[in-house]
From TrEMBL, chain A:
Protein name in UniProt: ABC transporter permease
Primary localization: membrane
Transmembrane segment boundaries: 6-29, 41-59, 92-114, 159-176, 206-225, 288-306
Superkingdom as given in the UniProt entry: Bacteria
A molecular function GO annotation: transmembrane transporter activity
Any one GO CC term of the record: plasma membrane
Membrane topology label: Multi-pass membrane protein
Record-linked PANTHER family: GUANOSINE ABC TRANSPORTER PERMEASE PROTEIN NUPQ, SUGAR ABC TRANSPORTER INTEGRAL MEMBRANE PROTEIN-RELATED
Pfam family of the protein (one): BPD_transp_2
Family matches, as InterPro entries: ABC_transp_permease (IPR001851)
UniProt KW keywords: Cell membrane, Membrane, Transmembrane, Transmembrane helix
Native source species: Mesorhizobium japonicum
Signal peptide: none
């Protein structure tokens, strides 16, 4: 039974750890499906995390915090759009620039406003998104098997966790069942086809980036307002890049993206759980190795274990009307 | 003349310093097929793009159905019943036919109703015009002819009354082209107006009612097709008399330069594309290889020029074998006097992002003529490029211009100039005049014959039967990877056509 409890706990933290990856991955999916590479997911998450924690702390409201996170993140997405859609700049350069601006500006503004070494003040209850306990969760906790699964895995997460997982079917529905989704996928494959059909390529791509901005904003808010009780500098710690890897791994498909992010989340959870405890046969594994495992796995998977991942064909190429 | 479907009055359009359209007037009668011919860069596509709202004219008026129209975006054009089939299809390759049809013409924010509507509408169009296509097929899995049909359906689905087709047969096989023409005639019978842009005069003569000729951005003439001739149109297009069939004397075939023996080549999927082919190419003759595209000609060319692996057989150049592993050193073959003008100049023959002068020596850049110590001799290269530009009439005559900015015909001339001016003993040419203008075709043919007369061995592969017949001293016909017949230059088109279709299948008497 101890093993069972341990597994449930690992799965529980898998869910918690995969949420920011999942949100960022879906954010990247909107942008890349429209033909805009977005290496700036990391930066947008970071500014979202900062804006969310700062606003929640100042206005004493988690929802104002979430709103600010989304607003600022979308604003950064629009900067990316302005550079890479309107001015047809290099999308990678623009994304990297956004990451640098995010890393620097959050620390400077954090220090200037709160004088806590770049942190935001610790969030009080009501300023964070608290866990939602589902009806009957406590009552069934002692029921074998089902009890812990219901109480630990399904119940007891914050609003944003449920939101993140609901975004998976929603994103699928938007992409494959709506006019906007059809056009979005088309513009990432052949923008000229969209242009000659009388649809504005630029406006369509801006709208895709707005979706990206909203989702990275939520991802950032989750980091600073759910997982942590405030903003800490560089708290995204490469999650934006892992999300990009998951996106390729998932071949730009929403449901696959969820499984890819859960896998990365699981590796993360297992690494934390197994720190310091000896494994059968292998013996004690260095902490550093466990922490590096998700990244090693990424390299191996991307190096060819996933088959051919064909990116959207117009990805990374600014659209210019041909003569 | 019946009522005008479209009237263009005084259209002007410039791109920077280039005046693509000057003061164009054009009237297209309702319910007719109207051809627009002109050389590459004459401004045909620009004019049609203005009509479709893809570009804005700098000045001028457009009347559609007798009323002045303002066409600022493709949406305006579609609303006025103008549809366009672009030269490079505007399809999303990994979408289904249905998804491509409804893109931009969805009836609702959700797709369900649009798809249902499109399905029934496609069914109707299919019955009315004989335009069959599987609505759930994925575009990239369809042959080119069907992809084009999807483009036509796309326009009809949007209620097009006027259909513009830009160089529609460039990518089609002869059979597909014939089918397209039947469809266009049917559209005309249903009262639609068709505008056909092309530089192939035979097509104009075959199906249009009226034809307008453009030259260097101006509209030089409009004729009733039945009252004009190919010769007159060619002359109007080029601005001078053009020889449609180049005069040439008897071939004086000499020693065997290239001997192909039992050559077999498979493609990447393992399908046999060249099946046990043998032939000789002698000095002082042009051998033409005819055949419908996809019957192994491309693979044969690539194997001979050392860039594709051959499974078995041998190729001897001047009595010495060529490396057939697919890893032959192209430089070595060049040194041995084998020059190759590839079929696909964009991917194999040129680096489009390079300047013209760089492409004009590409592959020969190690030649001491172009070097100054370890460095390129820029002055010599420029002088050489200018010389070739003059000799081959490459336009615009600016060796510093990026190669991508030259028209297709001029790009072809750059490749030909580079390979021919090296004075090779054997010249292998794939599709010498694909996408090339009438005037330039005459020039290229003359050069090829001049090379032959200097005693060079020339192998020409072309899907244009006219070209094969007018150039070749001997014609080999390929079908399904085999040479199914050899004929002299006097062979009739019908005879060759039957061979190409595999009807009169017989072993090559070689």
């Amino acid at each position: 039974m101890d093993v069972f409890i341990a597994i449930v706990q690992i799965l529980d933290s898998t869910i918690r750890l995969s949420v920011p990856l999942l949100l960022a991955c879906l954010a990247g999916l909107f942008s890349e499906r429209s033909g805009i590479f977005d290496i700036g997911l990391e930066g947008k998450m970071l500014v979202g995390a900062f804006a969310g924690a700062a606003a929640a702390s100042v206005f004493h409201s988690a929802f104002i915090g979430l709103g600010m996170a989304i607003l600022i993140s979308v604003a950064f997405a629009m900067v990316h759009g302005f550079a890479s859609i309107t001015h047809r700049g290099n999308q990678i350069v623009s994304g990297v620039a956004i990451n640098f601006i995010a890393a620097g500006s959050t620390i400077i503004l954090g220090q200037a406003w709160f004088q806590q070494g770049g942190r935001t003040p610790a969030l009080q209850p009501g300023e964070r998104f608290d866990a939602i306990v589902w009806p009957g969760a406590e009552a069934v906790r002692d029921v074998p098997i089902i009890g812990p699964i219901y109480a630990e895995l399904i119940s007891g997460h914050s609003l944003l966790v449920y939101l993140a997982f609901l975004m998976v079917p929603f994103t699928w529905w938007v992409l494959f069942r709506t006019r906007f989704g059809l056009r979005l996928r088309a513009v990432g494959e052949n923008p000229a086809a969209v242009d000659t059909a009388g649809i504005s390529v630029a406006w369509l791509r801006y709208r895709a980036l707005i979706c990206t901005g909203i989702l990275t904003g939520v991802a950032g808010a989750y980091l600073s307002m759910v997982q942590n009780g405030g903003f800490v500098k560089d708290m995204t710690a490469g999650k934006g890049y892992i999300a990009l890897a998951a996106l390729i791994f998932a071949k730009w498909k929403p449901v696959n993206a969820m499984f890819a992010c859960l896998l990365f989340g699981f590796l993360d959870a297992a690494a934390i759980r197994l720190q310091g405890s000896p494994l059968p046969i292998i013996g004690k594994v260095p902490v550093q190795f466990m922490q590096a495992l998700p990244y090693i796995l990424t390299v191996i998977l991307l190096a060819g274990f996933i088959g051919k991942a064909i990116p959207p064909r117009a990805g990374g190429v600014p659209y210019v009307k041909e003569r | 003349m019946a009522q005008a479907a479209i009237e263009l009055i005084g259209i002007n359009k410039s791109f920077g310093a280039v005046r693509a359209n000057r003061d164009i007037n054009l009237e297209i009668a309702r319910g007719t097929i109207h051809g627009i011919v002109g050389e590459n860069g004459a401004g045909k596509s620009t004019l049609m793009s203005i009509l479709y709202g893809f570009y804005q004219a700098d000045s001028g008026e457009i009347h559609v159905g007798g009323k002045p129209a303002s066409i600022k975006t493709p949406n305006d054009a579609i609303a006025l019943g103008i549809g366009m089939v672009h030269q490079h299809f505007m399809l999303v390759d990994n979408f289904s036919v249905l998804e491509n049809i409804i893109l931009g013409a969805e009836s609702d924010a959700l797709l369900k109703s649009s798809i249902a509507k499109a399905r029934s509408e496609l069914d109707r169009l299919e019955r009315e015009y004989g335009l069959e296509v599987d609505p759930d097929a994925i575009i990239e899995e369809l042959p080119v002819g069907l992809q084009q049909r999807v483009e036509i359906l796309k326009a009809l689905y949007r209620g097009a009354e006027i259909l513009i087709l830009d160089e529609p047969t460039g990518v089609l096989t002869p059979a597909e082209a014939d089918h397209l023409f039947r469809i266009l005639k049917q559209l005309k019978e249903q009262g639609k107006t068709v505008v056909l842009i092309t530089h192939k005069l035979r097509e104009i003569m075959a199906i249009t009612d009226n034809v307008s000729v453009m030259r260097q951005g101006t509209m030089v003439a409009t004729r009733e097709t039945s009252k004009t001739t190919v010769g007159e149109l060619a002359e109007l297009m080029v601005g001078r008399r053009v020889l449609l069939r180049v005069e040439k004397g008897e071939a004086e075939a000499g020693a065997v330069k290239l001997a192909v023996k039992n050559l077999t080549v498979k493609d990447s999927r393992g399908v046999t594309m060249v099946d046990d082919i043998s032939f000789d190419l002698r000095a002082g003759e042009i051998v033409g290889i005819a055949g419908v595209a996809g019957n192994g000609q491309s693979e044969l060319l690539e194997a001979i020029s050392g860039i594709r692996h051959a499974v078995s057989g041998s190729v001897m150049l001047d009595g010495k074998p060529i490396d057939l592993t697919g890893a032959a050193d192209p430089g070595e073959l060049r040194d041995r006097g084998l020059a190759h003008v590839p079929e696909d100049r964009h991917h194999v023959g040129l680096v489009l992002a390079f300047e013209e002068n760089e492409n004009s020596i590409l592959g020969y850049h190690d030649d001491p003529r172009y070097l100054k110590g370890p460095f390129l001799n820029v002055d010599a290269i420029m002088a050489d490029a200018k010389d070739k530009i003059e000799k081959y009439d490459i336009r615009p005559g600016n060796p510093r211009l990026k190669t991508a900015n030259f028209s297709g015909g001029n790009q072809q001339k750059i490749v030909l100039a580079r390979e021919m001016e090296q004075d090779p003993g054997v010249l292998i040419v794939g599709q010498p005049t694909r996408g090339v203008d009438v005037g330039a075709i005459e020039f290229i043919h003359k050069r090829l014959i001049a090379m032959r007369d200097q005693g060079k061995a020339v192998l020409v592969v072309s899907v244009e039967l006219d070209e094969i017949r007018s150039l070749s001293d001997r014609i080999l016909v390929m079908f399904a990877g085999r040479i199914v017949g050899e004929r002299g230059p006097e062979a009739t088109e019908g005879e060759l056509g039957l061979l190409m279709a595999g009807v009169e299948r017989q072993e090559a008497a070689l």
